[in-house]
Fold this protein.
Amino acid sequence: MTRAPENLLTVRRLLLDHLDIDPDTGRSQDLEPAEVGIVGDPAHRGGYHCGSDRVVTRDYSVVESPRDSAGLTLDAAALDVGLFEVPSNGRTHDLRTFSSWCVAQCVANTPDSRDIREIIYSPDGKVVRRWDRLRKRTSGDDSHLWHTHFSFFRDSIKARRDQTPLFRRYLTAIGLLEDDDMSAQAESQINSMYTGMFYGGSSMGRSVDPDAGGPEKASNSIVAKLDYTMQRLDTLVAQLTALSGKDFTDEQAIVAGVLATLTPEKIAAAIPATMAAQVADELGRRLAA
């Protein structure tokens, strides 16, 4: 008897947990349990909703890919998702946007979408489209105007491979599920920043004495380095202030330096004639004295 595999039941539970907004009341707005199916009804024959007891001759869900023929078991390998509308992060998300997002991930060949063989969906509720990884089919019947069909390669179901990552990523992208990896990364970054700020570490460079022999121990933490830098800046400012009040001009040294470069001839040539006589008289008077 065809059975629902645990990995697809897990996907079903995940979607209902977050898209069935009011699980105690059946309503058209959110996703209801009856709208998320795995095994086809008893009359269903052939296709991914059927296991090995219900496939038909030349069944496309078996013969078109070695991944399917090698993975055939009693497990169904399909998931149907019905209509829903949920508000999140200021937007309304529904089956149309969900389906288009999933198809885009398959087109991009993201690692978490590679077990999906096909998606039959409607991007607008008016036309039915089919994305097929094997590029063998392009159409689907009108029932896919109000539900989206996912086929999974049978070998991934047989291997019990986790199929939730793609759907978790969708729920995270629209804000209905917290990204555990991002939260853990953020927490680690905050812890690293706190440790570096107050305690330093092996990658923080040389240690400094933040209060120059005071009660604080030498450290390579960011706070210690900031304290050390401010102390050095305060010292430098005090030194500059002291220097700014000093007169660094030594006039006598400047005159002596100029005179040292002048010969008597140059001095005489530089003195005007009227002043030369006065200089000569003054020099004679000094020599006589």
Observations:
- The mean pLDDT is 87.
- Strands lie at 36-37, 78-82, 85-88, 91-94, 116-121, 129-132, 147-152.
- The two ends are 140 Å apart (CA to CA).
